[in-house]
């Protein structure tokens, strides 16, 4: 009975909930709540970062690991060279061996063999982890040399010949839309495309029920707890939007020439540079950009497109390795009946002012999903 007797001073007040504007109630039909258990799928980067924390690595090794994970493509392959990663870290004390050591640690995470350069290296890593060569030689009555020949032959096979062909059409909705404020101006408007996200608000009927309770009642405590949880959720959503917008603003600022003039003006950019500019750590930038897309006047681009290592140019300054990959793609597209080898591609790049080693050309070609010259010859 005591709980039913309430004085004005005992009731919940607007001060308990006024941190958020209560939106006006909509039509009764809109009050129907369709509940569904939505859970965002964990990204590869998030899964790897969670495991790295358990390895008790030094701060230096964690920084290297973040740089490596930041260069992974959607298949978990390394898109840059060891030298690219070293440049992105901008720490002269870090050697190639340090990066390789951390890369091998990442190989052993779940899923295994992530961070390998190509299919061949991935299969080698997986085979070393899973196969007992002595047992295979014994069962098949093979010499070690014969087994090596068989392994080399298998490594050259293509287990997924249909990988270059699309099986279905996938519609991608951009997460950001970048437009010019005024035609031909250098100022841009960035919009977070959240039209598929339902507007969230504190329920007005529940607020009224909360305010009608005495401050010491069980119902008051229950409502206060749930309202605080709702506020925490709204705060988290607002913080996420703020992080995404600050990250996108920083990318546009660093890649202004790209958004002004097109893909050929893409500059070298690392996750670390965006992290320093925004004040977030590298892992936050990696999560904020992973799987996100931006629509601009030059097309739809994944945010990972804007991050690339720098390649020195004879004309002065550095260019993005994405530009080098684009040149390689064009050279191969126009190569004629006799396919260009990686060595010949390296020479043609040198003629254009880019000194790129044959091995690096090979890595870039493989990252584009283009087979070597001897296989292109048979196509």
Automatic annotation (TrEMBL):
Annotated GO CC locations:
DNA-directed RNA polymerase complex
Ranges for domain RNA polymerase sigma factor 54 core-binding come to 35-206
Reading the lineage from the top rank, the first entry is Eukaryota
Which InterPro entries does the UniProt record give? RNA_pol_sigma_54, RNA_pol_sigma_54_core-bd, RNA_pol_sigma_54_DNA-bd, RpoN_core-bd_sf
The GO molecular function terms of this record are: DNA binding; DNA-binding transcription activator activity; nucleotidyltransferase activity; sigma factor activity
Under the heading Pfam families, the entry gives: Sigma54_CBD, Sigma54_DBD
Family under the similarity heading: Belongs to the sigma-54 factor family.
Q: What is this protein called?
A: RNA polymerase sigma-54 factor
Name the species this protein comes from: Potamilus streckersoni
């Amino acid at each position: 009975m005591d709980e039913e007797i309430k004085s004005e001073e005992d009731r919940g007040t607007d001060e308990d909930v006024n941190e958020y504007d209560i939106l006006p109630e909509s039509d009764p039909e809109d009050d129907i709540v369709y509940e569904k258990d939505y859970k965002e799928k964990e990204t590869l980067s998030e899964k790897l970062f969670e495991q790295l924390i358990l390895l008790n690595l030094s701060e230096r090794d964690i920084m290297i690991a973040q740089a490596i994970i930041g260069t992974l493509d959607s298949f978990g392959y390394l898109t840059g060279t060891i030298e690219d990663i070293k440049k992105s870290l901008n720490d002269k004390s870090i050697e190639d061996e340090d990066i390789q050591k951390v890369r091998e640690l990442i190989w052993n995470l779940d899923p295994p063999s992530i961070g390998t350069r190509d299919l061949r290296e991935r299969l080698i890593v997986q085979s070393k982890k899973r196969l007992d060569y002595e047992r295979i030689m014994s069962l098949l009555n093979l010499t070690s040399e014969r087994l090596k020949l068989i392994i080399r032959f298998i490594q050259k096979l293509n287990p997924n010949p249909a990988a270059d062909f699309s099986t279905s059409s996938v519609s991608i909705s951009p997460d950001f839309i970048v437009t010019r404020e005024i035609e031909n101006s250098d100022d841009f408007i960035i919009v977070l495309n959240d039209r598929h996200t339902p507007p969230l608000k504190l329920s007005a009927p529940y607020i009224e029920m909360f305010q009608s309770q005495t401050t010491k009642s069980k119902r008051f405590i229950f409502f206060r707890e749930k309202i605080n949880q709702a506020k925490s959720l709204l705060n988290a959503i607002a913080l996420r939007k703020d992080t995404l917008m600050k990250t996108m603003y920083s990318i546009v600022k660093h890649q202004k020439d790209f958004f002004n003039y097109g893909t050929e003006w893409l500059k070298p950019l690392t996750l670390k540079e965006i992290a320093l500019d925004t004040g977030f750590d590298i892992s936050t930038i990696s999560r904020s950009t992973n799987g996100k897309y931006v629509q601009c006047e030059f097309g739809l681009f994944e945010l990972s497109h804007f991050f690339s290592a720098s390649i020195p140019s004879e004309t002065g300054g550095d260019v993005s390795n994405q530009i080098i990959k684009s040149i390689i793609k064009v050279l191969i597209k126009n190569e004629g009946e006799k396919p260009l080898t990686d060595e010949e591609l390296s020479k043609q790049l040198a003629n254009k002012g880019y000194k790129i080693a044959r091995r690096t050309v090979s890595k870039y070609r493989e990252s584009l999903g283009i087979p070597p010259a001897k296989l292109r010859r048979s196509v």
